[in-house]
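Chapter summary example.
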Amino acid sequence: MLTAAQLAGASGAGLAAGVLSGFFGVGGNFILVPLLALALGLTQHQAQGLTLAALLPPLGAPAVWQYRRAGVPLLWPVVGFLILGFLPAIPLGSLVANVLPGPVLRIVFAVLLSVAAVRTWRTPKAHAERPHLATPPPRYVLFSLGAGFVAGFASGLLGIGGAIVLIPMLTRGLGLSQKQAQATSLAMLLPPIALPGVWVYAQAQGGLPWGSLLPVALGFVVGSFAGAKLNHLVTPVRLTRGFGVLLGVSALVLILDALSQLTAR
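The structure predicted for these 265 residues follows.
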């Protein structure tokens, strides 16, 4: 049974992650994991498993609806092939993560994210304000499969949301607008693509703190709806630069996590 403080902490963590998810089109797990660990006293693995479990229901549906209501078209064939590439890459990334040194991987990936952050921040205004695509571009099938695989591999390898690496690939590789790429990323969360990961964590941890799932999920739904609504009040240029800042913050979090693992040895 959760105490009042734990209930508020779980709901607040879900709310914060949901706002970030709706506004930037990311899963929000890189902020949800540490917040849950802090608010509920969970271990890192328990927090990661609970985060994946919280995202199994289609909690991003209100945010996707807001994007569609604002006139952002979704290219469902692209979404489908992204998911097909994503699914087999998650367990592969998890397998590699158990073989290679985690801190080194995190630092290398943080460097790549930092480069992406600078490039995103410096995106020309003409590119940031590009129109939405009405139909999938040529050769989208192979690119979507590959982009989904990279995002899934990064998610399994580092425990971060695949959207952090997926959205830049969609804007630069397929020519999607920033908001269209974010809506596409959120649409990938509608089916329970994290189910294999939840099963693995539940088996390894002897179960998960299921009692915390409902307040986290409810907070996430409210936050994602609010974040998506706020998204449409921001110009594409500022949104693109804001996403660049998010990439930079993600890189910093990975570096700090890697340093904490190295110093703990």
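To summarize the output: The chain is about 75% helix and 0% strand.
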